[in-house]
Amino acid sequence: MKIFKLLIVVLILTTTFNFISASETPNSVYGGLGAGYNLMEKHSEFTLMAGYDRHLEGTPEFSLGLLVEGIFAEHPELLLGIPIGFYPIEEIKLWIAPCYAFALKKETEEHPTHEVHEGETEHTKFDNNFMLKFGIGYNHHFHHTHFAILPFLEGTLVGKDLILGAGVKFNFYF
């Protein structure tokens, strides 16, 4: 709930904007943060992200990019993805991003009787997953600058799990 209040405050504080078109500034780098909730496993997570987007020549309403995201939940994950963006109107961005997550999980070896024994060993297991992210955001440009904020809502499919998230990205266009 706090993230939604933050997004509303940021939008109110930056109500005047002058959109810089994609033909003038086709490149964008961004950093962002978000929060999500896994509907199947019933846990929340926090994310930090960085990325690059490039509007495609001849079709400025489409973009292609690279995403790196750190996910901090029950176990940390590093996510690499290729977001494909679509701007149905200048301020609204829709995207879909096939991603690959490198997850670090710690597991405890259990005794066959499932009793807890002193001296059980804990080992690290790498669990890699394909993910599909999709989302929508409002690209809000600051007045006469190359900076923008993009509050967003996002869904992530990981196997049978659906993770819903919200956050904000801070963009610089060049």
What's the short story on this structure?
The chain has one helix at 2-13, and strands at 27-38, 43-56, 59-72, 76-81, 84-89, 92-108, 122-138, 140-141, 147-158, 161-173.
Structure notes:
- The chain is mainly beta and 174 residues long.
- It has a single domain (27-108, 121-173), classed as Porin (Beta Barrel).
- The protein is built from one helix and ten strands, in the order αββββββββββ.
- The protein has one helix at 2-13, and strands at 27-38, 43-56, 59-72, 76-81, 84-89, 92-108, 122-138, 140-141, 147-158, 161-173.
- Strands 1, 2, 3, 4, 5, 6, 7, 8, 9 and 10 form a ten-stranded antiparallel β-sheet that branches.
- A hairpin with a 3-residue loop joins strand 3 (59-72) and strand 4.
- The protein is elongated and about 50 Å long.
- Mean pLDDT is 78; it is low at 6-23.
CATH class membership: Mainly Beta
Helix content: under 10%
Sheet bearing the most strands, described?
10 strands, antiparallel
Q: What's the structural domain tally?
A: 1
Which word captures the global form? elongated
Secondary structure category: mainly beta
Number of strands: 10
Low-confidence residue ranges: 6-23
Mean pLDDT: 78
Roughly what fraction of the amino acids lie in strands?
over 45%
Distance between the termini: 33 Å
Q: In the CATH scheme, what's the topology name?
A: Porin
Q: Total number of helical segments?
A: 1
Looking at the overall shape, the CATH architecture is Beta Barrel
SSE order: HEEEEEEEEEE
List the helices and strands and how they pair.
Layout: H1 2-13, E1 27-38, E2 43-56, E3 59-72, E4 76-81, E5 84-89, E6 92-108, E7 122-138, E8 140-141, E9 147-158, E10 161-173
Antiparallel strand pairs: 1-2, 1-10, 2-3, 3-4, 3-5, 4-6, 5-6, 6-7, 7-9, 8-9, 9-10
